[in-house]
Task: structure prediction
Amino acid sequence: MKKFGLIGFPLSHSFSKKYFTDKFEKEGLHDCLYNLYEIPDISDLNQVLVSNPELVGLNVTIPYKLQVIPFMDELDPACEAIGAVNTIKISKGKLFGYNTDYYGFKSSLETWLGDARPRALVLGTGGASKAVVQALIDLNIAYLRVSRTKVNQEDPLLITYEDLHSNSALLQAYTLIINTTPLGTYPNTERTPDIPIAQIDSRHLVYDLVYNPENTAIMIAMAEKGAKVKNGLEMLHLQAEASWDIWNR
Result:
């Protein structure tokens, strides 16, 4: 039996187990199993590995995409540049870190935008945002990151939500909004990033990496103002298949 799985906390929102279980059934992979490993602390990863010696691959989700890096024996060069891990290959007792969020997001965004390259606001500064930022750089899309607080005052590409509220020119100039935070994820579906919704109009595009629920609170609010919206389900599928390819090399 080959085991695969997902580590994170919490995992009640995740579709990963269903996705891979359906994949194994469709493709007749009866020797494969995908489980959810909900660990309250990244140090618990060692116990997951010891208790499941059949593990050959793991996905990593919030809040461990950065915290898991010290556990890796080796990082893929592209993953090292991004600075976050969402896929682990386990081979001969060693852990190899990769990032398939980058591929999933970049492919999905390119298809959605076509030839357009609007300037982007990236909401959040966690592990997922790092893959998103690298994809934007490679697509030649100008961006600003948006955080609750500006820890690094010297970073010209980092602003706060307060800045968005006090400077209406920002949302006029940056019309692609990408939510990389978990706000709005099931079961806390009413939560949204602190965006001034009144400034949103039909020029805006909103890409929410959250996929459960299908229509998040921020997507609904912005669609009502005329914005075009998209959730993260396609990205999930693309990055999952990229993970599968890595595990089976």
User: Anything to note?
Assistant: The mean pLDDT is 96. The chain has two domains: 2-99, 102-234. The two ends are 17 Å apart (CA to CA). Residues 233-247 form the longest helix (15 residues).
